[in-house]
Structures are given as C-alpha cells and as structure tokens.
C-alpha cells in the first residue's frame, strides 16, 4: 500500500514541477489580420520587491478574464499571466483605440498614488516577448531596454509645492516583425511601447469604444496627441484609457530576438573578474605547490627511509598524529548531515548550470529552468542520503544512520520553510499576489513529505548497506595530547582567512546575480557561472587542504570539523555582509517588509553557500588525508 502511494505522490510532484512546453519554444507565425493577444503579469517594483496582481489596480478588464495555469515556481513567485483588453490584429495599425473609461474613487486614487510613489511598473507580453521601453545610451551607441512601463509619474506645476500624480493612460505600442521566408506570415521579434499621460476630451455623448476623442487626431496619415494636459489622479475624476499600435518590419531574426533584451550588461567586466580570479588561483596554487607539496613529499620520503622503530618515534609533525587523525569527530551525525546536504546542493548546481550553459534552458523558458532545479534538488536527495549514511557508518557502525538520514532530509528544507513561511505571512498582510494560501501550503508540504524524504531514506538505506570505509592507518586507543597551538593554526585565524578565497571567487558573479534578481532583469552568461563554480571548487579544495595540513604539522589532529568550517563559515558570513552592503548602497528599499524579505532570502542563500563550500573543503581534506596516510605513501 505504501509503495503505490509513494509512486502516486512522485508522479504528481513530477507533473507539478515539470514546466509545460512554453509557446516561446515554437515559432508562431501570424497572417495579416490574425488576432494577437497581449497578456499582463504582476506589477513589480525594485523599491518594494512585493509583486501585485495587475487587476489589483483600477485598470480596464477584458470581458472574459481567464488566467493562464501557472507552473509551481510561477505560483510560489506570484507570477500570474492574465488576459488583457489589448487585442491587436497582425499588420493592422490602430489609432487612438478606446479601451474603457473608469471613475476614480477615494480607494482607487489612494492605491494608484501609493503604487506611483513606490515606482511600480506594468509588465506585459506579446507572443512571450516582454514589453520594453528602448532608452538610448548616453555614453555608447545603441539602446538598453527597460522592462515594463511605470504606472505613472510625479510632477508639479510651476509655482506650486504640492506634488501631483499623473497616470499613464495612453500606450503607443510598436510591434516589430520578421517576414517568413516560405510564406507571407509574420513573426514577432520585438514588443515596445511609449507611455503617455493624456487628459482625454470627447465630443458629444459618451458612446463607449466608439466615442470620438477630440484629443486624438491625424495629420498626414500620422497619429498625434493634440492634448498637452496630462491626466492627473483625482477623486471623482474620469480616466479614459487608450492605445495605438503600429507594425514595423525588422531585420531582427526570430532566433535572435532575445539578444536585445540580454544585452544589458558588459561581458568585459565579467571576463575581467574571471581572469583576475584565475590569476589569483594560479598564483596561490604555485605557492602551495612550492611549499606544502615539496615539504610533504620530503617528509614521506624521509619516513619511508627510516630503518628502526625508535627512529620513527623521533619523527615530528603530521606523522606523529597518524594514530589519531582518523579518530571520529565530536557530533559526527551533524557533520554527516551537513556533508550530505552539501552534496545535494553541489549536484543540483552542477547539473542546472551545466545544462543552462549548454543551451538546454533559455530566458524563453526561465520558469521551466527553475522548476527543473526544484525537481533536480529532490532527485539529488538519493545522493544526499547515500553520502550521509555512508560517512556515518565510517564513524559509528550502527542503526543510527536513520536519524542522520532524517536530519539530512529536513535540515536545509526546514530552514527554507521557516524563512518562506515568515515571508509569506508578511506578503499576506500586504495583500501581495505572491501569497500562497494556507491550504495550498499544507498540500505542498504533504506532497513534498511523500516524495523528498523517502528518496533521501532510499539513498541512506543503500549507503548503510555498503561496507564501512576503513581508515588507511590503525586508530590508537588513547588519544594523543594536543600541544599548545601557534596563533596561525587556531580557528580564530584559520576560519576568517579560509573564507577569503572562496568569497573572492564568486564575488563578481554574486554581484551580477543580485542585480538580475532584485532589479528584475534577465540573467545571461551561464558559461560565466559554470566557470565561477569550477573556480569555487578549486579554491575551497586548496585552501582547506593547506590549512588542515599546517594544523596537522603542529600536532592538532581535529581536522574533521575544521575542514568544513575553514572554507564555509567565514565565506558565508562575507557573502551575507556583502548582501547587506548591496542593500544599503544599491537598493532603494525604505519599508520594513521588503527589507525583511531581502535579508531573509539572503540569509538562506548564505546558509546554502556555507553548506556548499564546507562540503567541498571537507571532501577535499578527506581524500587528501587518505592519500598521505595510505600504506603506499606513508607505510
């Protein structure tokens, strides 16, 4: 009974996580006169970071409002694509089309003013291309593209001190298209707009969308707005929403229509950061090889040349602690759980970043990429449970592997759930569109508990059935007394120093990640991210091995936890401190709720980085210790 239920839950979760095939992955061709529907998504602001539904404000609604079924990530993130009242006919220009007329009440005026104060933008999409505003660069040639348009602007009349709020109630759309080679159909390659605030006037009686507006006219077949008076938001004021659309044939190819959206960053800066990190890593590797490796090779050679036991007992340094170096650490269960979770994170990142760098995911299907990351994380639970159980069996051969596996299954997800629950409660108080209802939250928890922990337990069971990992040297019965340590090998020095190189390896790419995430931009350059991840692996391995080696030379054999904390602890702290610095210097957040959201999610990212870097250092030292104390090298 339990196995079919588990399979059913797994199938349900896979169906929920798997992103439906995006229409952006297929070429849509439109004949002249075909209807092209504009979709609207959430209102976003870099000042508050709290998304709201488009129809939470008094905007025009279509007759039949139907929501597109969201994927899991879109549902949790509050990204709801909905139908809009803007309906185009391909290749047919429209001039000053009336959408609707709305009366602004006290509540509506307050909501619009608040959103304009917080610099909220309206996000739309046409044929899965986001709406943008091209803005000419001041220094270099070309344009950069602002995503969405601001709901309104704040202004003042001459001689007045009171601020006035004007709404963008007229949109001038431009649809660029490419002609298909083998047919007369068209393909959308760009979707742009220019927003205006116009206090419309109409002639005679109001006749709905057929009303003739005196503020719109035509001059030599060119549409013009004849009103110079903007539409101010006032209680009791009527606002007429209008739009016009033009179509323009473009030389942009459909396959490269996203290039303009992704050209918002300078790749030279990222290449410079990669080269700088690589040069630093090479210099550190050379210094490490010239000091530690030469010393290690000399010590192993001298030890193997000793002829008597008395001569061996006169040896000093790391060779003296060979009987204690594989002694189990304190609290081995927690160490195994952290290492298993770190392996799960590392596997998920490597698979996701590698597939993205190879082009399996693109901005056309970003939600699918995020859903795939969630699914990969759950499947990697098998490897996490196997790793933690196998390590714990090396320390203590017993049935307690079940407790360690349970800790591996819930350690990081529990932290993520607590932060997500607090954020969801705050968003619920703000009436945000990204709020997850409590019933849905309970359903997701039950669904997760029926799939993820069982996979971790399957991995733990497989790991517990494997033979225990035997140390290469015999462990002495009596622990050796640890001599007084010099200042350079104490945790107060090694832990802060050990995090410098891992943080330096990811610093620049972390900055770009913050910009892309919190400023609502598209991420590009997964190749840079893959190179950065590989540099992180090498940095964590080298710094952890070097610090642990000099710790052993001073007679301190307690390297298990130190190998995890040296590269992981302080680097995560540095990462979080930089996120705080970015918050105060780059972000425009001034309200407490978005500040708590930002710091909470950055704390979660820092904890994940701690587990990732610590696991890399731990396993690097583990294999290094087994090598230098192996019978071939040491005996």
Automatic annotation (TrEMBL):
<feature type="signal peptide">
    <location>
        <begin position="1"/>
        <end position="24"/>
    </location>
</feature>
<feature type="transmembrane region" description="Helical">
    <location>
        <begin position="271"/>
        <end position="293"/>
    </location>
</feature>
<dbReference type="Pfam" id="PF02990">
    <property type="entry name" value="EMP70"/>
</dbReference>
<feature type="transmembrane region" description="Helical">
    <location>
        <begin position="596"/>
        <end position="629"/>
    </location>
</feature>
<feature type="transmembrane region" description="Helical">
    <location>
        <begin position="372"/>
        <end position="392"/>
    </location>
</feature>
<comment type="similarity">
    <text>Belongs to the nonaspanin (TM9SF) (TC 9.A.2) family.</text>
</comment>
<keyword id="KW-1133">Transmembrane helix</keyword>
<dbReference type="InterPro" id="IPR004240">
    <property type="entry name" value="EMP70"/>
</dbReference>
<feature type="transmembrane region" description="Helical">
    <location>
        <begin position="334"/>
        <end position="360"/>
    </location>
</feature>
<feature type="transmembrane region" description="Helical">
    <location>
        <begin position="525"/>
        <end position="552"/>
    </location>
</feature>
<feature type="transmembrane region" description="Helical">
    <location>
        <begin position="404"/>
        <end position="423"/>
    </location>
</feature>
<feature type="transmembrane region" description="Helical">
    <location>
        <begin position="493"/>
        <end position="519"/>
    </location>
</feature>
<dbReference type="GO" id="GO:0010008">
    <property type="term" value="C:endosome membrane"/>
</dbReference>
<keyword id="KW-0472">Membrane</keyword>
<feature type="transmembrane region" description="Helical">
    <location>
        <begin position="443"/>
        <end position="462"/>
    </location>
</feature>
<dbReference type="GO" id="GO:0072657">
    <property type="term" value="P:protein localization to membrane"/>
</dbReference>
<dbReference type="GO" id="GO:0000139">
    <property type="term" value="C:Golgi membrane"/>
</dbReference>
<keyword id="KW-0732">Signal</keyword>
<keyword id="KW-0967">Endosome</keyword>
<feature type="transmembrane region" description="Helical">
    <location>
        <begin position="564"/>
        <end position="584"/>
    </location>
</feature>
<keyword id="KW-0812">Transmembrane</keyword>
<protein>
    <recommendedName>
        <fullName>Transmembrane 9 superfamily member</fullName>
    </recommendedName>
</protein>
